[in-house]
Amino acid sequence: MALDLSNYDEEQVKLMAEECIVIDENDKVTGHDSKKNCHLMENINKDLLHRAFSVFLFSSEGKLLLQQRADEKITFPGYWTNTCCSHPLYRPEELEEEGQQGVRFAARRKLEHELGINPEQISLDEFTYLTRIHYKAPSDGTWGEHEIDYILFLQKDVSFEPVPNEVQATRWVTQDELRELMATADAQGLKITPWFKLIVENFIYPWWDKLDNLDTSQQDKIHHM
């Protein structure tokens, strides 16, 4: 039986038709499938895996931009997370693997779509690719994530205007403020996305300390988590 999406936001339902890049556990492309199918737990439980990315945007003074996902989002609505999280699509410019060009292109596209950041403000080589994580996480009984997630850092002062259907709030944080946020989220009734938790708990602070010398932190591997 086809899943009835009539109760979800119309704009978010349209995005569910996008074609994600389907991969194996070694991040090799095996095909493509709709965003909807890639995020249904019934398929995730059969090990359907897709490619994704997470952007961490830092200001020139070293603060990290967080976003709270809009309540209209179908997966993880209302959750706090890193600056931008999404998927490269199954199209030539976003399938390009040399130098992570496809992922970088997709990241710039989604920064505009979610946060209104004009692509002219960012060149692809300004993203620093750090590593990949492979994780699986349910959103609710119907939806979830199963991704190999490319981690991209970007330090640059840019102008932005969040798109309400995508992002309901933003916040700049220091390292200490992020530690406090993560430690008190439950008490404050704040929800944190599982991929952001994984990255914060396992990686972010040593990288954050080296924003001016990230080349030494790059790891060309997949962390299966």
Automatic annotation (TrEMBL):
Pfam families for the chain: NUDIX
InterPro entries according to UniProt: IsopentenylPP_isomerase_typ1 (IPR011876), NUDIX_hydrolase-like_dom_sf (IPR015797), NUDIX_hydrolase_dom (IPR000086)
Annotated keywords: Isomerase, Isoprene biosynthesis, Lipid biosynthesis, Lipid metabolism, Magnesium, Metal-binding, Steroid biosynthesis
Residues of the Nudix hydrolase domain: 48-198
Pathway(s) per entry: Isoprenoid biosynthesis; dimethylallyl diphosphate biosynthesis; dimethylallyl diphosphate from isopentenyl diphosphate: step 1/1
One GO molecular-function entry: metal ion binding
Superkingdom to which the source organism belongs: Eukaryota
GO annotations of cellular component type: cytoplasm
Broad class of enzyme this protein falls into: isomerase
E.C. code: 5.3.3.2
PROSITE patterns listed in its UniProt record: NUDIX
GO BP term, pick one: dimethylallyl diphosphate biosynthetic process
Transmembrane portions of the chain: none
Cofactor: Mg(2+)
Family, per entry: Belongs to the IPP isomerase type 1 family.
UniProt cross-references to NCBIfam families, sorted A to Z: IPP_isom_1
Protein name: isopentenyl-diphosphate Delta-isomerase
